[in-house]
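thread: overnight batch results

M.L. [08:02]
morning all. the overnight job finished for the chain we discussed friday. pasting input first so we're all looking at the same thing
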Amino acid sequence: MNQSVLVLNRNWIAVSICDARRALVLLYLDMARVVTENYEMLDFEDWRDLSRYARENVVHTPRYQLMIPQVIKLMFYSRFPPLHVRFSRRNIYLRDRLQCQYCGARPAREDLSIDHVIPRSRGGRTVWENVVLACTSCNARKGQHVLSECSMSLIRKPRKPHWLLSSHPDATLDNRPLWQKFIDEAYWNVELED
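M.L. [08:03]
and the structure it wrote out:
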């Protein structure tokens, strides 16, 4: 029941992520509808009927089973979410998931540091697109060099995180194709400049 469900406002804009329990309660209380792959909106009764034939991602009640929805749309809420992600140490650690972006290691938090991909001594700036987490050995190996000088590469290009996913670090777009329809694709597919 702690699977993540994307929440849309009544204008079809992603505003939050909640757990499956909350999503099903909102659906039952007629405060939300389930959004399907075809953009159909199903109320609780329709969703319950459709859930009869499901074999996975279901929860059981004494009377019936319910599929856990991927996306719900609120019926009355129309506010817009805050779109800014604060540039902070905590958010860098969340974005990089406590993983060295050079070797992929996941050491203890105290053995990670923030590294400038292009060192400040070479004109690199302290911005989302130029900082990554590095383990102590990779950070020492890289030093004040650029990646090509020390034969290192990044696992992922650093970028500013999406506000929604940064507030829920366990939620990803992996295996959630329906989420991708509502979380700004242009943001994720834009070519980053060097």
